[in-house]
Design a protein that fits this description.
Length: 73
């Protein structure tokens, strides 16, 4: 949905982008890659407001590198 702007389930074009947020007490949508919330990577949600299907994406290439460094075997 991020690239096509269309829902793969119902084919609607009514898709909204919900930016990831890093916050205290688990608020937001992020992946921890360090010891504090300040090193977290945000995850953007794309939601079809017709059927409710959603996708999550890490938008920045440098954030993908951080995740790979921490979690790849």
């Amino acid at each position: 949905m991020r690239n096509s702007k269309a829902c793969p389930k119902c084919r609607s074009n009514d898709v909204v982008r919900i930016p990831g947020v890093v916050g205290a007490y688990g608020a937001g949508n992020c992946i921890n890659v360090g010891r504090t919330i300040f090193s977290s990577v945000t995850v953007t949600r794309y939601l079809c407001v017709t059927c409710g299907f959603s996708e999550e994406w890490v938008d920045a290439a440098d954030d993908l590198a951080k995740i790979k460094k921490k979690y790849a075997s």
